[in-house]
Design a protein that fits this description.
This protein is 62% helix and 12% strand. It is mainly alpha-helical. Helix 1 packs antiparallel against helix 2 (24-40).
Length: 162
């Protein structure tokens, strides 16, 4: 029951951040949506209350945002360079990478982060393996691909989610 309450509070907090309004109508609508979604996903999205209110996790989550923004900007510049210089080689392919993240939430966050990077797209997540379509496959082997794609994200996400 406490995870459902945490999900409801998270949903309502997200609603407030997205609407940026304290009007009565907005608050009532947000509460209704937060309760409905919190009750529906209560067993799917399990966030222990102690984990959510841990300031250390919030600190590392805030650190993750500029790190992600920097990596995303770097990937965007790389992709723009490839588009503007057609002679630049591309070697598309599907690679398998390994993650040491244990929680489903952390793996989902990692998969989303990879997909948001230009040039990569997560195809599937199976246990501790993630299959990624990569526009320019570099290196050889799973360990090398893992190091190039996820190691920076994984270290920070481990501090946030595990």
């Amino acid at each position: 029951m406490s995870t459902r309450i945490t999900n409801i509070l998270l949903g309502f907090g997200l609603w407030l951040l997205l609407t940026w309004s304290l009007d009565v109508e907005s608050l009532v609508a947000g509460a209704i949506v937060a309760v409905a979604v919190g009750l529906m996903v209560g067993e799917i999205l399990r966030i222990p209350p102690g984990m959510f209110f841990n300031p250390r996790r919030w600190f590392w989550g805030i650190i993750y945002v500029p790190y992600f923004a920097f990596e995303c900007a770097r990937a965007n510049l790389d992709m723009a360079y490839r588009v503007l210089h057609p002679a630049m080689p591309i070697r598309p392919g599907v690679v398998r990478i390994h993650t040491t993240l244990k929680s489903d939430a952390a793996r989902a966050f990692l998969a989303t982060s990879i997909t948001l990077m230009p040039g990569t797209h997560v195809i599937d997540v199976v246990d501790d393996r993630i299959y990624v379509h990569w526009i320019n496959v570099r290196g050889s082997g799973e360990d090398d691909h893992t190091r190039r794609i996820v190691r920076g994200f994984e270290a920070l996400l481990k501090k946030v989610f595990e």
